[in-house]
Write a structure and sequence with these properties.
Blueprint: E1 2-5, E2 8-10, E3 17-20, E4 28-33, E5 40-47, E6 50-55, E7 57-59, E8 62-66, E9 76-86, E10 89-92, E11 96-101, H1 116-172
Parallel strand pairs: 1-4, 3-11
Antiparallel strand pairs: 1-2, 4-8, 5-6, 5-9, 7-8, 9-10, 9-11
Length: about 200
């Protein structure tokens, strides 16, 4: 492991290999330090005229960073230096070298036409997504239709029950048939004969 002691970087030859160009989250750069927790440390990198600044995390006495394709953008031997900040104080380590080895990066050779493997993978993903959406749509329609039928059946049952209840109430409160009118008593004067009964 790379070490930083009294702002001097110490490393073995094998420690200077960072990885390969365009690697992403495959390796981690770790540097053991003797600094107190008040220091914030950056890694300055230069390749030719191109420069980059990498913010280092800290866990205990180890500075670290997950190496991304942005950090490993180009192959080559990088000139590096640690830079620390603590309040108004700024400190630099000695310069050291880190190696990024080359990669074929075949994908970059096809700016207008995708490699066959990528095109095949994209087609499979697109088809799988379409199938999933179709299944989900079919299941949704079936479920919606079932729920609609249940709601209609329930509503029809409620209407039928209400109609039957109304008929029962109407039948029990109907007015009874009218009784025949009572016959009025006859008034006769003395000597007057009673009229003959009308034929039924």
């Amino acid at each position: 492991m790379i070490e930083l002691k009294n702002w001097r970087v110490l490393m073995e030859v094998r420690d200077r290999e960072l990885g390969y160009e365009s690697d992403h989250l495959h390796r981690r750069l770790e540097i053991a330090v003797d600094l107190d927790a008040g220091w914030a440390v950056k890694l300055d990198m230069a390749l030719g005229k191109a420069k980059n600044v990498v913010d280092l995390e800290r866990t205990g006495d180890v500075l670290w960073v997950e190496l991304t394709r942005d950090i490993l953008a180009s192959d080559g031997l990088y000139r590096c230096q640690l830079r620390g900040h603590k309040g108004d104080t700024v400190a630099h380590s000695n310069q050291f070298e880190l190696l990024v080895s080359g990669s074929i990066n075949a994908v970059e050779a096809f700016p207008s036409v995708e490699p066959s493997e990528l095109a095949q993978m994209e087609a499979r993903v697109t088809q799988a997504k379409a199938d999933a959406l179709r299944r989900a749509s079919s299941q949704f329609c079936d479920e919606a239709l079932r729920r609609t039928e249940e709601a209609i059946s329930a509503a029809l049952g409620s209407v039928q029950q209400a109609h039957a209840a109304f008929q029962n109430v109407a039948g029990s409160t109907a007015a009874p048939a009218a009784a025949p009118a009572a016959r009025q008593p006859e008034i006769r004067f003395e000597g007057e004969e009673a009229p003959e009964e009308e034929a039924n």
